[in-house]
Design a protein that fits this description.
Distance between the termini: 102 Å
Shape: rod-shaped
Oligomer: single chain
Strand content: under 5%
Helix content: 40-55%
Number of strands: 0
Radius of gyration: 35 Å
Largest sheet: none
Order of helices and strands: HHH
Length: about 80
Amino acid sequence: MIAEGNIFMLSLLRAQPSLIVQQPPAAAEVEISPMAPAPKPSPTVAEMLQLQEKGIISVQALRQWLGDIAGVAPTSL
């Protein structure tokens, strides 16, 4: 014997057969991002010369920076 609640479910499923078909779960969206922000571009030689001319960086700092980009070890003055 079918219980009263089951009859209601059967009639509901007959009225809306789409309830029987199970839809696949929605695909998960995955975003991959770097762990650290992208590095900022290095200043140009002209920009560094302007900073030195304005007194923002010292001659020694400019020499150090130029040596770093050239791959040369710093020398003492």
